[in-house]
Amino acid sequence: MPRTRNALAATAAALIALAVPASASAKPPKWLKVEDGVTQPQFELANAIEETLFVQTRLDTDRDGKRDRVRIRVSRPGETETQGINVPVIFEHSPYRGDLGSPPNHDVDFDLLPQDQFGPRADLPGQLDNYYVPRGYAVVLGESIGTFNSDGCPDVGGRAETLGTKAVIDWLNGRARAYDADGNRVKADWTNGDVGMTGVSYNGTLPNQVATTGVKGLKTIIPVSAISSWYDYYRANGLVVAPHSNTRGAGDNDYLGEDTDVLGDFIGGPRMDDRCLFMRKYFLAKQDRKTGDWNRFWQQRDYLHKAKRIRASVFVVHGLNDFNVKTKAFASWWQRLKANHIPRKLWLHNRGHGGPGGADYKLAENRWFDYWLFGVKNGITREPRVHIQREDGQYADEADWPAPGTRTARLHLASPGALTTTAGRTAAQSFVDRGRELDTDDVLITNPDTANPNRLAYLTPPLTTAARLSGTPWVSLRMSIDNRDDANLTAVLVDYAPDTTPEMVTRGWLDPQNRVRLDRGRTLRRGQFYDLGWDLQPDDHVFPAGHRIGLVVVSTDHDYTIRPLPGTELTLDPSYSSLRLPLVGGTIAVR
Questions:
Q1: What is the reported pLDDT for 126?
Q2: Which of 267, 373, 387, 487 has a CA-to-CA distance to 449 between 20 and 30 Å?
Q3: Which of 94, 144, 201, 578 is catalytic?
Q4: Per-residue burial over 380-399, b = 16 or more CB atoms within 10 Å of its CB, e = otherwise
């Protein structure tokens, strides 16, 4: 690793150490078994005490006149009773525990775009208790409000869901009540009140949500493949888009047409047809699949602007190939944590949706919890902030992300089909949208040197040295929609290797009606050029020497966007269009 990078890593580590809040545990208890800075199994899981309890919230989301209770399952070392020890808690909350529905997705095929028209001891599920209870932690698995055995109605990403999660932490700290199945009040007198949360996907989003309340007792969270803004999950720059069910978005997308109402029906199950029917109507009315505009509904489900309230440390984990919870979720969250001086760590892997797996990650997770919940001085906050997996599967450490030394390289579009570092004048180019008829990945990014009436492709010459992308690409395109009142716009960044299948690196979308602001569309004049800019999903990718960097511009993205009938005609003026790439070393990497 270059000396400059080592220096940056040391500086970052020092800043982390300075940022550690006083609320971190001062020192581990004398009874705790620690070796090499990591807690070790010392209690028998077979002796664990398991309880099923119902935590009372301050909410009445199903409007039955009674406060909702959320069900939790607790597993704690038996020694909390026999020896009177107090332990911290690892808490995973989830809307997916059971009794799920099977709702259909929305239709995505239209003639025109909608905006043109207006018993015996049972082990707890999962592995958290198996791993952490022997190491001296209690594990709590909760059922999100309005799901499975919890009372109420689901509130996908909303305030009620957040407060229902917070109630569990309040109970663990003596600020809320819980009851057993017989109605007897139960106190959490076996815990010291220090809580760490973790989970994957929705289960990882709930920690993000509750952390923004600043709830006392929540010391740290490890959100894995987690959402930081539900707008960015179901929308993109004014366009209705879908999360993807596959790694990079290749192949059929089972989630196409999903939205908050569909997810609400799924996690709420049968109750959505009767006592919670009003919530389905609420989702349908407020999510606005017609215009895709930002509104108050989405603002309530955006945690980025609430990051300043966070009082917990955050260990972010995400897959660079995740197009379900897309990479903008972690990148935006990471920047907000940085801006608000939140103690933080980042683990980026090359897989898709979910965690990285492997012993190295589990050890890092364990050490992070040990430091923040037990006060084990294991040095994890003095290490480089970022652990990132490269294309060959090996991991490297970085001081921060995007990578130090990253600068913007501006590449200009030129005809025919070139990306260059110098601007020039060239003729406008037209293409026709194939709408629902053609898959973006399988067809439109292949054979870039051959003219295709349904896309435009621009490529650099073969790279003389490797170029590393680290951050968020951005396109600025001067375009017109010539025969309809609106269109989908999609930009795809592609890695073209000699004589092999091209690799889709990342992509991004825009509704040109939202060219000025997200919360209000503006009509377009047919045939008039507009300067349109939008972001692609963030990534960290190395283009090897000999490869070419490609930008493919299409209209409808078959597996992500709403799909109109084919035939929309579009024109792009390359002379006033460019691609901005965050590259380590900047423009020199592609010059």
A1: 85
A2: 487
A3: 201
A4: bbebbbbbbbeeeeebeebb
H helices within 128-276, ranges in order? 128-132, 159-172, 202-211, 230-234, 260-268
Residue type, 319: G
Q: What is the pLDDT of residues 160-191, one digit of tens each?
A: 999 999 999 999 999 999 999 999 999 999 99
Alpha carbon distances (Å) from 260 to 232, 234, 264, 382 = 12, 8, 6, 40
Tens-place pLDDT, residues 419-434: 999 998 999 999 999 9
Count helices and strands (H / E) in the chain. 11, 28
Both tokens assigned to 10: 């040391």
| Residue 353 designated active-site | yes
Helix, strand, coil shares of the chain, percent, nearest 5, are 25, 30, 45
- Residue 322 known to be catalytic: yes
CB 273: neighbour CB atoms within 10 A?
A: 12
Residue ranges per structural domain of the chain:
3-398, 406-589
* pLDDT at res. 24: 64
Q: Rounded to whole angstroms, how far apart are CA atoms 577 and 414?
A: 9
572 is written with which tokens?
A: 């792009």
CATH of domain 406-589: 2.60.120.260
| Structure confidence at residue 91 (pLDDT) | 98
The residue from 244, 349, 353, 412 that is catalytic is 353
Annotated active-site residue in 68, 170, 261, 322: 322
Residue carrying the six token digits 């897309």 = 326
Can you give the pTM of this predicted structure?
0.92
CA 193 to CA 200: how far, in whole Å? Answer: 23
User: Topology of 3-398 in CATH?
Assistant: Rossmann fold (3.40.50)
In sequence order, which residues have a C-beta less than 8 Å from that of residue 470 and are 6 or more positions away? Answer: 401, 402, 403, 406, 540, 582, 583, 584
Predicted local confidence at residue 577, as pLDDT = 97
Question: In the numeric block, which tokens belong to residue 268?
Answer: 């709420």
Q: 438: part of which helix (H) or strand (E)?
A: none
CB 550 within 8 A of CB 457: yes
What pLDDT score was predicted for residue 15?
40
Upper half-sphere CA count for residue 18 (Cβ side, 13 Å): 7
d(CA 464, CA 544): 9
Q: Which residue numbers in the chain have pLDDT < 50?
A: 1-22, 117-122
Angle, helices 260-268 vs 277-287, to 10°: value is 160
- Collapsed DSSP state (helix, strand, coil) of residue 572: strand
Q: Which two tokens stand for residue 471?
A: 């951050």
